[in-house]
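Propose amino acids for all 342 sites.
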């Protein structure tokens, strides 16, 4: 965790006043009193209660680049501060906190931030461990990146028939909450060793018989002689929010939400252009994937052909293009869409 200056050193009277005003307005309890973080994020954020929405993103790691990229695609340009913990958007009322993903739920629960982007795995783990504290955090939408799964894996020498094979064994994990819930559900009794990282080396060092860890490509498991056995959870990046926004922040939040929706739709959509014989227009329309009403235009000097333009809200595969071609289409162009708003 990045070291920030301590509150006592940094907090001015004006800041204290602004904070008090903000807390009264949002009805929040003093985050400093309940904040589990060792450093105080508010010390870098004297502008709390300034009508700017605060979003927490992962500072480094698997989601970080994509999260910042998503905001940028939504037209929000960020200027990094010198300590790199806080970024300000200069064309949108949004401040970005770059923190450890593990800390994001706490930033929202204490209302230092109102929204965040993190892996479902990280949110669900916190909720499994501290149900009451994080109950009010809400998953708003899946973002389609950072896909991974939380799985149980064993050394290839382990004779694994089902999850029952873990009875009486020791499992190393950074996801005690989710693993415990899973084992309870399956009626399996096993010992859990909590590790912060490098879980995959636990079996080799005889710390554990099995592990429960995130798997993405599977390379980590393979290079450590481990075999994936059971998937506990499928995960991806999600947008989350707390229920502590006043109407001013709510409005900003809804604007961001609609922009993010538009970005995701555009990312998943393609613009397709082709020339089609008038006779086979119906057949060609039927082949166009995920497109409700294509635009049909005359082609100058051609009585028998028309131009067809359509937005396809799904991937356009080579096989689809070949089928269009078989139906008489030519000059088929598929291009990405940058922005899209209904
Ligand atoms: C996760 C997980 C594995 C690795 C799996 O660690 O703990 O080590 O990714 O990915 P793979 O299947 O593509 O090999 P992460 O990189 O998030 O870092 P950490 O273990 O230090 O938290
Ligand atoms: Zn790891």
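Proposal:
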């Amino acid at each position: 965790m990045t070291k920030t200056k301590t509150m006592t050193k940094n907090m001015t009277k004006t800041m204290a006043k602004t904070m008090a005003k903000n807390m009264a307005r949002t009805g929040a309890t003093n985050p400093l009193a309940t904040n589990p973080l060792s450093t105080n994020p508010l010390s870098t954020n004297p502008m709390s209660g300034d009508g700017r929405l605060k979003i927490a993103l992962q500072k480094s790691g698997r989601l970080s680049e994509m999260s910042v990229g998503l905001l940028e695609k939504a037209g929000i340009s960020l200027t990094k501060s010198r300590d790199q913990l806080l970024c300000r958007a200069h064309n949108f009322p949004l401040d970005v906190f770059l923190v450890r993903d593990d800390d994001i739920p706490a930033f929202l629960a204490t209302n230092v931030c109102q929204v965040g982007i993190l892996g479902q795995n990280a949110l669900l783990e916190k909720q499994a461990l501290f149900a009451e504290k994080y109950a009010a955090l809400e998953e708003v939408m899946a973002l389609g990146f950072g896909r991974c799964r939380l799985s149980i894996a064993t050394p290839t020498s382990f004779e694994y028939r089902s999850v029952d094979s873990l009875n009486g064994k020791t499992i190393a994990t950074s996801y005690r909450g989710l693993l415990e819930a899973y084992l309870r559900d399956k009626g399996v009794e096993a010992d859990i060793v909590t590790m912060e990282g490098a879980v995959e080396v636990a079996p080799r060092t005889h710390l554990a018989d099995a592990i429960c860890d995130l798997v993405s490509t599977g390379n980590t498991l393979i290079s450590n002689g481990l075999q994936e056995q059971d998937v506990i959870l499928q995960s991806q990046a999600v947008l989350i929010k707390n229920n502590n926004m006043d109407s001013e922040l709510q409005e900003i939040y809804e604007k961001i939400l609609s922009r993010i929706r538009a970005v995701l739709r555009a990312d998943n959509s393609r613009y397709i252009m082709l020339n089609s014989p008038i006779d086979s227009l119906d057949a060609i329309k039927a082949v166009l994937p995920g497109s409700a009403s294509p635009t049909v235009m005359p082609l100058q000097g051609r009585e028998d052909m028309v131009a067809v333009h359509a937005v396809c809200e799904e991937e356009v595969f080579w096989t689809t293009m070949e089928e269009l071609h078989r139906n008489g289409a030519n000059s088929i162009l598929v291009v990405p869409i940058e922005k899209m708003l209904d």
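The longest strand covers residues 302-312. The pocket of zinc ion (ligand 2) is lined by residues 197 (CB under 6 Å).
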